[in-house]
Automatic annotation (TrEMBL):
Keyword Transcription regulation assigned: no
Limits of the Glutamine amidotransferase type-2 domain: 9-303
SUPFAM superfamilies (UniProt xref): N-terminal nucleophile aminohydrolases (Ntn hydrolases) (SSF56235), PRTase-like (SSF53271)
Name by which UniProt lists this protein: Amidophosphoribosyltransferase
InterPro entries linked: GATase_2_dom, Ntn_hydrolases_N, PRTase-like, PRTase_dom
Keyword annotations: Glutamine amidotransferase, Glycosyltransferase, Transferase
A molecular function (GO) term: glycosyltransferase activity
Superkingdom of origin: Bacteria
CDD domains for this protein: PRTases_typeI (cd06223)
Length: 632
């Protein structure tokens, strides 16, 4: 990916179903859960680098003993930072008191972070700031064990302002505008309610206050609480939560926009945003990791019982296709195949662009995430050549000479590592006038990988703004003197904002939007832009369900090809010698390659929740009025 889009968050949850002694005995350490959590978070570090957090709960502690711990970091290497802190605490405790070494019960009482229920989170913010206060997990504390709530999520609500107002109407006074606080307070409100009602009921049954506590834990119906809390949520979400006494949950939105997976055996229950994180860390097979159904919650009671319950009725499945194209690690068995298919499906367009001339064409990719689609693209080039070779050989008949055969078979797709990413360079870049020259060097090239006059095909997973292409990649590739540079995007054109967890909230950031705008100017149809703005304005008072995505009309007059051509023009840096062509995946190709993840609103404008239409409506108004702000 050449455009850094800050995106996504990753969740990990672990519940150890056996006493800690069991893990000490079997795996040599009572810190088994903490160690596994570290690995789970590292394996998902692709999902968030703005911050990371960890929380754990110890079951069955006596009053006066700490049972919840949390550590968060917004440092440069946040996962490393939190686990360095955790390690430090553990090692210091072990050094100071050597008798702890083999006494698991004492470890549990005196060392923080160790526990049976653990949650980890890596964050890229979509709402609020990047300071430590915005880092998950969030904590809602109370002297009543059951009312303690720890929440972390991969989510974005389109109606967080409205949800905030609802809380205020309920008489609450949330301490922050962070969206995670709003969601947590919403759950917390109904949790408080449920605990109070249960307590009343249990008292009526003749139990005293002390006896009531374990009974509340047993009877607390998390599904019911989540049902009430999430009634008005409009967004994409996977929300994880822990309750002070030891219940845990992971809840996924009704359209399955955000991903969630889980695994269970008699030792552990584990959940994560990505399947391979679970597979690798626990060495379990692909099939034993389940996807959490949309609208459902995985609920793990303190007593170890596990259930999956419907919370909100699932709607049409619209799992985010960007997860498959780019966000998730490509190590997932299905995603790996899907990315290769994305590369395969763009090949016919490439062939056209190079005029079937594979002999004078070099294939390459933008490091690192586009590598898998590159393999798919190259394999298709091989297939194409094989067919050609077959025809040539058959045409020459049985008397073909060794030389002829050799000449035919010698033609292979030319694949090279052309672009190199100098990752470290980015951090050095300052804001002064020398910036552009520095930016141009974020990528480097392999000299000699391309002959003068070759076509150079370079695949990327998507093109959002195209800034890096224009300022760095195309300039540096041009130094190799290709005749034509064909930039291929394994994803379709990004035309609409995301409002479900990816930080792409402004229309004018998208190069496809800029291209359509330029086409309106070329065609003298800028009146249309004003007309769309007026239509958007008229909708601001409508309820979400009534809002229509009129921004589609902005693109409607132009074909995808016209827009791609304009994008090539916009992204060609001044003075470039090579001809630049830009090829995008088609929407049909995307659906064919990723059949389970048909959520494609950023490409098509078809939002899976009503709030999406309001967001895109607002985004267009912001663009037209020149307001540089997020639309949600
Ligand atoms: N990418 C995400 O899932 C972000 C979660 C949440 N909206 C935040 O900004 O903290």
């Amino acid at each position: 990916m050449s455009d850094a889009i800050k995106h996504e968050c990753g969740i990990s949850m672990i519940r150890l179903l056996k006493p800690l002694e069991y893990y000490k005995e079997k795996y040599g350490t009572a810190f088994y859960g903490v160690n596994k959590m570290y690995l789970m978070m590292e394996k998902q570090h692709n999902r968030g680098q703005d911050g990371a957090g960890f929380a754990s709960i110890k079951l069955d502690m006596s009053p006066g003993e700490r049972y919840m711990s949390r550590v968060r970091s917004a440092q440069q290497q946040p996962i490393q930072d939190i686990f360095a802190q955790i390690n430090d605490r553990i090692n210091t405790a072990l050094e100071q008191n050597p008798s702890l070494e083999n006494d698991v019960a004492l470890q549990k009482r005196s060392i923080p972070y160790i526990g049976e229920l653990l949650m980890g989170h890596v964050r890229y913010g979509t709402f609020g700031k990047n300071s430590i206060e915005s880092v998950h997990p969030f904590l809602r504390q109370n002297n009543w064990m059951h009312r303690n709530l720890i929440v972390a999520g991969n989510f974005n609500m389109t109606n967080v302002n409205e949800l905030f107002e609802n809380l205020v109407t309920l008489g609450q006074h949330p301490k922050e505008m962070a969206d995670t606080v709003t969601v947590m307070e919403k759950i917390g409100h109904f949790l408080d309610d449920a605990v109070a009602k249960l307590y009343k009921q249990i008292k009526k049954e003749g139990y005293n206050k002390r006896e009531a506590s374990p009974l509340i834990a047993e009877r607390l119906n998390m599904a019911k609480i989540l049902r009430k809390a999430s009634k008005n949520w409009d967004g994409g979400y996977t929300m994880g939560g822990l309750l002070g006494h030891g219940d845990g949950f992971l809840f996924r939105d009704p359209a399955g926009i955000r991903p969630a997976y889980y695994y269970q055996d008699d030792e552990i229950v584990v959940a994560a945003s990505e399947r391979p994180a679970i597979q690798t860390v626990f060495n379990v097979a692909y099939d034993s990791v389940k996807e959490l159904d949309p609208g459902h919650a995985l609920i793990i009671k303190k007593n170890g019982s596990v259930s999956v319950q419907e919370i909100q009725e699932p709607v049409e499945r619209k799992a985010c296709s960007f997860e498959r194209i780019y966000f998730s690690r490509g190590s997932d068995k299905e995603i790996y195949q899907e990315r290769k298919m994305l590369g395969k499906l763009v090949f016919p367009q490439i062939l056209k662009s190079i005029d079937n001339d594979l002999v004078n064409t070099v294939f390459s990719y933008i490091p690192n995430t586009a590598e898998t689609s590159f393999f798919g693209m190259v394999k298709e080039a091989q297939n194409y050549l094989n067919k050609l070779k077959e025809e040539q050989i058959l045409a020459l008949g049985p008397n073909i000479s060794g030389d002829e055969l050799h000449r035919i078979l010698d033609v292979r797709p030319r694949i090279e590592k052309v672009a190199i990413k100098d990752a470290k360079l980015r951090t050095f870049i300052t804001q002064d006038s020398s910036r552009d020259d520095l930016v141009a060097h974020v990528y480097d090239i392999s000299y000699g990988s391309v002959k003068e006059g070759d076509n150079l095909v370079i695949i990327d997973d998507s093109i959002v703004r195209g800034t890096t292409l224009k300022k760095s990649i195309l300039k540096i590739l041009d130094r190799l003197s290709p005749k034509k540079i064909i930039v291929v995007s394994s994803a379709p054109q990004i035309r609409y904002p995301d409002c479900y967890g990816i930080d792409m909230a402004k229309l004018e950031d998208f190069v496809a939007f800029k291209a359509a705008q330029a086409l309106h100017e070329d065609h003298g149809t800028t009146d249309k832009i004003k007309e769309i703005y007026e239509k958007c304005l008229r909708q601001t008072e409508l309820s979400d369900a009534e809002v229509v995505n009129y921004v589609k009309e902005f693109y409607a007059p132009f074909t995808a090809d016209q827009i791609s051509k304009k994008i090539a023009e916009i992204l060609s840096p001044v003075g470039i010698r090579a001809e630049v062509d830009i090829i995008y995946q088609s929407i049909e190709g995307l659906h064919q390659a990723c059949p389970k993840n048909l959520g494609d609103w950023y490409f098509t404008g078809d939002y899976p929740t009503p709030g999406g239409n309001r967001v895109v409506n607002r985004a267009f108004i912001n663009f037209y009025e020149g307001k540089n702000q997020r639309a949600y």
